[in-house]
Amino acid sequence: MLLFLLGSLVLLLAIMIFRTVQLSAREPDVEPSTPLPVNLDEATQRLSRAIQFKTVSQQDASMIDGDEFHKMHRFLAKAFPLVHEKLSRETVNHYSLLYRWEGKNPDLKPIMLTCHLDVVPVEPGTEADWDHPPFAGAITDEHIYGRGTMDVQSGVMAILEATEALLQQGYEPERTVYLGFGHDEEIDGEFGASEIGKLLQERGIEMEFLLDEGLPVVEELIEGIKSPVALVAVAEKGYLSLELSLTAEGGHSSVPQGTTSIARLGKALHRLENTPLPAKFDAHLTATFEAIGTGMPFYLRFVMANLWLFKGLLRRFLATIPATNAAIRTTTATTIFESGVKENLIPTLARAVVNFRIHPNDSVESVIAHVKKAIGDDAIKVEKLFGHIEPSPVSSITNTPYRQLSRAIREIFPEVAVAPSLMVGATDARHYTGISRNIYRFFPLRAEQSDLDRVHGTNERLSIQNYGEMIQFYARVIRNTTG
Ligand SMILES: [Zn+2]
């Protein structure tokens, strides 16, 4: 019996080690691509010019400086002569741009690359903290500085550079290529990408593949372990705010009776925060960890390759880190609590707002059902606030477009593992769900942990070498998906 047990154990261990070794070999080898001839110095100069336009999105959409967008449009026409000769360009809702590059085969569905023209403002009072002024487009030996170098005028410019270079080579795509540049992504894209999406839908166009900006190449996903991962977001979370309100007996505080509305609602909120929505280890999450595992040290690869055994442990561990917890479940955050007007008066009404970021495994309705069950108090009214959004559909990771995209990533970043992931914030991509089932969100930016604070922050900058990779990457994407 003991021998049998021991034998089984050895066999099990052997299988686990085999799976671990197999995991490292799972990513097929890709030949690094021959780079397209691009003069990186000149391209960097053009990016520097683009950074100088103050295409800033203020929270109040009416504060838009239309002149800056129009100046940028004119600059693009001059900077990319072939693009503007061979592609059609239309202006959508005054400031957004839509390009169309006719493909050779009208029977094939088109593809679309998108990014946005607007940038976030520089926080007043932080201007002096920048090593180079945020709208100067300063170029140093290694970097280009300025608002928009990471998010995401570099993307707009790299897409146009790639297109211009492909045209110079005489490249003719089989599929039609659309390039869409919205002008208000930083304030929800309601007037830019949303209008582009509607326009294309009215025209009855369905994209075979759509790539928007999104997650970067993270150089160090787990602190201390250098193992770069390209995170390709295949979905993005939804958004919901619920108002919880309760009316109870009020009165003078000298003669209190029963539980106050404040205490009762407080208790309900406490129960809700202690009953998180479940995290599910679905096929996508498993694929994420298997992909991440490929470049990791043996002991971590051992865990990632044997998720059938370690799932529960890993889930509990991920829940302890706020960033990964947000990636595996719908999050719950109480953001407003209001009650009471006078210190000696027991208020009748207590009200709270709880904000949820909905994981694609849940929906607005399932979250509401969960909340009602978790608080277990029928006297508390639960109501949706305006502006909720369902999570996006989840794009496939086994179809041809995803394979072509991962291939492009590994042709340009050969040392990188490609992992499907989830966008926790919102992007313009959600405005395009009506025109494509295959939507991916990835931006070919190499991001060190310390770089992430620069996005929307101070000293936003991009390495010139990385900018060169971006241009080559978009050229590979166009070739792989339309060749
Ligand atoms: Zn952005």
Automatic annotation (TrEMBL):
GO terms for biological process: amide biosynthetic process; amino acid metabolic process; lipid metabolic process; proteolysis. Gene3D superfamilies: 1.10.150.900, 3.30.70.360, Zn peptidases (3.40.630.10). GO terms for cellular component: extracellular region. Residues 234-380 form the Peptidase M20 dimerisation domain. CDD domains: M20_yscS. InterPro entries: Bact_exopeptidase_dim_dom (IPR036264), Pept_M20A (IPR047177), Peptidase_M20 (IPR002933), Peptidase_M20_dimer (IPR011650). Belongs to the peptidase M20A family. This is Carboxypeptidase PM20D1. It comes from Cyclonatronum proteinivorum.
